[in-house]
Specification:
Blueprint: H1 10-24, E1 43-45, E2 47-52, H2 55-99, H3 103-108, H4 113-148, H5 152-169
Antiparallel strand pairs: 1-2
Length: 181
């Protein structure tokens, strides 16, 4: 009994192989690896348009990877400083409101214009806090994406940037007022 000929995919794989070889031999391909590597030239980061062609470009990428965690710590410090400012501002406002006995509400028969302005300022403050958080989140995501390329030089640069950023910009967390102790 003769079996009918089943078309093989050998011809299709030849076309695929020749096409993939042509793609790799073009000279514009990126070396991407999810394993630890030390590649410096012909690497791409974040997008294919961020293609490193020279040693100088790679040094600039490593410098950027060093500065990204420092920028993240700077944003975090600004967020902490802004939050401290808002806590002090709200504490002062509460103290001033306690001094007033609510005579404005009693005379006007409702909410005063001052409290309406206060509500609007709280919305703006929260919007700014949200924007700061969004910037921190985006920057953290970029750092994570750079880390995922598993390039040894990039990993070392990110770690050193995090170390320097933390060391330089988190001293304010050690300053605890005596009243809080």
């Amino acid at each position: 009994m003769e079996m009918p000929a089943v078309p093989s995919s050998a011809a299709g794989s030849d076309n695929t192989m020749s096409m993939s070889m042509a793609m790799n031999m073009s000279g514009n391909s990126c070396k991407l690896s999810m394993l630890l590597n030390w590649s410096t030239i012909d690497t791409c980061y974040l997008t294919s348009s961020f293609h490193v062609h020279s040693t100088f470009q790679f040094v600039m990428v490593v410098l950027l990877c060093f500065l990204l965690p420092i920028a993240l710590e700077l944003l975090r410090r600004y967020q902490r400083t802004y939050d401290r400012y808002l806590r002090a501002k709200h504490r002062l406002r509460r103290q001033n409101d306690e001094v007033l006995d609510g005579s404005e509400e009693k005379l006007l028969g409702g909410q005063s214009l001052k409290s309406t302005a206060w509500t609007q300022s709280v919305v703006l403050e929260q919007a700014l806090r949200g924007l700061l958080h969004m910037a921190q989140f985006g920057l953290s995501y970029c750092i994570m994406m750079m880390w995922m390329y598993s390039n040894g030089y990039i990993l070392i640069a990110v770690l050193l940037g995090a170390l320097c950023g933390f060391g330089m910009l988190t001293k304010d967390m050690l300053d605890v007022p005596i009243a809080e102790m």
